[in-house]
Structures are given as C-alpha cells and as structure tokens.
Amino acid sequence: MAQKLTLQHPLQRLPSPSRGFSALVHATGLASFLWSFKWMHDNPNQANEAYGWHFQYLTVIGLGLSTLTFACGLLADLTLSRRLFLAKNILSVCSCPMEVLISVLYWGLHLIDKNLVVPPEIFIPIHADISFHAIPSIVMLVDLLLLSPPWTITALPSLGLSGAIAFGYWFWVEKCFSYNGWYPYPIFELLPTPGRIGLFSMSAIVMALSTATLKCVYGRINGFGTLVPAQSRSGDIKKEDGL
C-alpha cells in the first residue's frame, strides 16, 4: 500500500509518470505542438516580421505554455522524476483552462463569423486549424483527467489567475498594436476600448469557470475523495499515519 501511494496519487486514474501510456500521450501532444510551430514557420504572414511575432496570438501563447507543460510531462515519464511531474501539474493548472478557453472562444466566434478571428488574407487549412485550436485542449484534458492528481486551486485564486492572464494579454496586445498598427484578431479592430475591456473580462470569467468545471469533471470521473488535504499541491502524495 505504501509503495502504491508513493507511485501514484490515490485519485489519479492511470500511472504517471510512466514510460507507458503517459509517455505516449505526452509525446503525441508534444509532437503536435511542435508541428504547429513548424507550420507557422513554413507559412509566414505579417506576424512573422512584426513586434511580438506570433506570440501576439493567444492561441500561440497557449500553445507555447502547453509545449512547456508536456515537455515537463514527457521528461518526467522518461526519468520517473516526481519533481518534473509536479512542475507539469503546476503548469497544467494554467495551460489546461487556457486551452479550453481558446477552443471555446475560437470555435464559438468561428461559427458566428470566421472573419472575427481569422483575417481574410490568411488561409488556415482544416488540419492546421484543428492542430492549433482543438488538439491542445483535447490532449490537455486527457492528461488532466487520466494522468494527473486533482487540482487544489480554489475559486478566488482561480479567478485571480484568470484575470491576471486576461488583462496581462490585453496589455501585451496593446503594446504590440502600438508598434505594428494592427491587432492580431479582427474582432479587436471592431470593438472600441470599452468593448475590448468587456471581452477580456468575459474571457477571465470563462477561464475561471472552466477551471471549476474541470475540477468537477475530474471528481465525477475519478472521485472527489476526502483524503487530500486542502493545503496540498498538485502532484503531492497522500500521507497517512504510519506511512
């Protein structure tokens, strides 16, 4: 029993870090993320030479954070390092809700009017579109629900983190605009400043809600449990008297 708890959190569904299914998921996700960066390099647009490069796009910021998350996950699998596994889980608290937010916003606005999120002069083939805007959230959800311990972040810190990301991105977008004279997403061009504030505020709320929803879904799938202390961090191991 003590050996099992050392290797895996009691609510975690599948072994991770491990050189089996966990390594396969992280390697597959990482390969998709790196392919997306290669696609950007091979299909340049105005962002390639602009201030901020493609990191003006929230999609690419999320992709970069997901790449770092899965790199830590794969290294943890290969080395069976608990420290790298903990680093992956900490990063996941930010990257997974962000990828869910990106997918919800992108495909929601895409259904309303594709030109709100993709400038008319840019063509993204369907396989690249899926690689950028669907696969990251899918593999991050697989990692969370099957290969990770439960998150312990609560509602207020979650909203604070989401707000910091949303308004930090707004500051970054405006800084890039001051150099480039154009916004990365056409919808920013259409909205006045109060409208952009409302959009970023709504995004922060949606990201916080996605964090709470993901915690709930995790509990439904893996159990909520009463064994994990509130002050523990993602990746911590359950400790019992005598262990």
Automatic annotation (TrEMBL):
Gene Ontology cellular-component terms listed: endomembrane system; membrane
Entry annotated with the keyword Transmembrane: yes
Record keywords, A-Z: Membrane, Transmembrane, Transmembrane helix
UniProt-annotated location(s): Endomembrane system
Pfam families named among the record's database cross-references: Far-17a_AIG1
Membrane topology, record value: Multi-pass membrane protein
Keyword Transmembrane found: yes
Membrane-spanning ranges: 20-37, 57-78, 90-110, 153-173
InterPro entries xrefs: ADTRP_AIG1
Record's protein name: FAR-17a/AIG1-like protein
Lineage summary: Eukaryota, Fungi, Dikarya, Ascomycota, Pezizomycotina
